[in-house]
Write a structure and sequence with these properties.
Blueprint (H helix, E strand, L loop, with lengths): L2 H19 L6 H19 L6 H21 L5 H6 L2
């Protein structure tokens, strides 16, 4: 499977993890920063064998875009999220 597809799939599942990490954070700016940092860290691990600044940044950006898209289109208003956060 191509690396970009793997990154997009990983990003699609990250809203669950990021939501868990942000559970007790009230400030939306801090939540945004946490989600960005998590995506960038995963970008580093994906490119650990060939780490360059551009690889790391491209992977992190794709993962972040995928995670944000899934969060805003599905996860934010899902019944599963409401059940988990109770």
């Amino acid at each position: 499977m191509e690396q970009q597809a793997i990154e997009a799939i990983i990003g699609a599942f990250l809203p669950i993890i990021i939501d868990f990490l942000n559970r007790r954070v009230d400030d939306s700016r801090i939540k945004y920063i946490i989600s960005l940092i998590v995506c960038l860290i995963i970008g580093v691990f994906i490119n650990i064998n060939d780490i360059t600044f551009s690889n790391f940044l491209a992977s992190g950006a794709l993962i972040f875009a995928s995670a944000q898209t899934v969060y805003h289109t599905y996860w934010e208003k899902s019944d599963i999220r409401k059940t988990i956060n109770q």
